[in-house]
Design goal:
single chain; 330 residues; alpha/beta; D-Maltodextrin-Binding Protein, domain 2; 5-stranded mixed sheet; globular; disordered N terminus
Length: 330
């Protein structure tokens, strides 16, 4: 009898642990999305409980987008990835970790939000920085994420290149301009939040090139009035792609839960949360409602000058590419 009872209790324990595991998700995301996903996760947990009667726990892992992609590729058991460049999910698709057609699994190329690159300068803008041309002037120190490790840095690089092209320059002139910009970069940050720490905590640099959403994060973490946000005349459209990590969900049995988690990013509630965190919502109604947050500027799609992010990755950011030719580690 005791033996049967022990066996039964062991079976229940195993089943319970399986249920618990199936109701826990890990989201591997880029560095400066922490605050957004903190609020989004709370909204999703409440929505999931209301619609299914089940509880779910969502854990987060943050870092440079490419660093996170490599971690997942190397075995981090994330159920979903929410990155800031499509190439990082393409990398996982190439390793069989996510579906080859991941971009077709959700609307808008599986990118529920977008962003763009702005400049953060010290309060009062002492260097008088207004546009990309000011970043290449002698005596101006620029903080940027390493384009080899983070999508934040890649988008900053591509935005600077696109500025030259959009204002009538050639690719050769764009290459020379971006080289001059990176000569003004004293140190490459590991990720977006690290770049903010370099700028504000280590007091390095006159200007930080980062995602639009980081403006609010700086005000919340360091106090309003520490920085001024400068909208350049031209910037890039940075998509924030998402995907289910098939390798993990097949093992944990969390496929439906992972899909529900990413589906809800397109809901009105989630789009509103995104806008409050200065992520550009896909919903035109929500975007219009927050027009005061998203200042008008010329936004260039990656496809206009680079073909695709995958092509840009090969030409500019792979080992031996254009970035390696213009930047020497200091």
């Amino acid at each position: 009898m005791k033996t049967r009872l022990k066996t039964l209790m062991a079976t229940i324990a195993v089943a319970a642990s399986g249920i618990a595991a199936s109701q826990t998700l890990l989201n591997s995301s880029y560095d400066v999305s922490r605050e957004f996903y903190k609020d989004y996760n709370a909204a999703f947990v409440a929505h999931y409980r209301k619609t299914t009667g089940k509880d779910v726990k969502v854990d987060q892992s943050h870092g440079g987008s490419s660093a996170q992609a490599r971690a997942v590729g190397d075995g981090l058991d994330a159920d979903v990835v929410t990155f800031n460049t499509t190439t990082d999910i393409d990398f996982l698709a190439g390793r069989g970790v996510v579906a080859p057609d991941w971009a077709k699994r959700f609307p808008n190329g599986a990118s529920p939000t977008t962003s763009t690159m702005l400049f953060l300068v010290r309060n009062g803008n002492p260097k008088g920085i207004k546009d990309w041309d000011d970043l290449v002037k002698p005596g101006v120190s620029v903080v940027v994420v390493n384009p080899k490790t983070g999508g934040n840095g890649r988008m900053a690089y591509l935005a600077a290149w696109a500025y030259v092209r959009k204002t009538g320059g050639t690719d050769a002139q764009a290459a020379e301009f971006v080289a001059r910009l990176f000569r003004n970069v004293p140190v490459l940050a590991r990720g977006g939040r690290d770049a903010t720490s370099v700028f504000l905590q280590r007091n390095i640099g006159d200007v930080l090139v980062t995602f639009e959403s980081e403006v609010l994060s700086v005000d919340r973490e360091f106090g309003a009035g520490k920085v001024d946000a400068i909208h350049p005349s031209v910037s890039i459209i940075a998509e924030n792609p998402v995907a289910v990590v098939e390798r993990t969900t097949a093992k944990k049995g969390t496929g439906e839960l992972a899909k529900a988690y990413l589906d809800y990013l397109y809901s009105d509630e989630a789009q509103e949360i995104a806008a409050r965190h200065a992520l550009r919502p896909r919903s035109t109604a929500v975007l219009k409602k927050h027009a005061s947050t998203f200042k008008p500027l010329t936004l260039v799609p990656v496809s206009e000058y680079f073909g695709s992010l995958a092509e840009a990755q090969k030409v500019h950011f792979n080992d031996g590419g254009q970035f390696d030719k213009i930047y020497t580690v200091k």
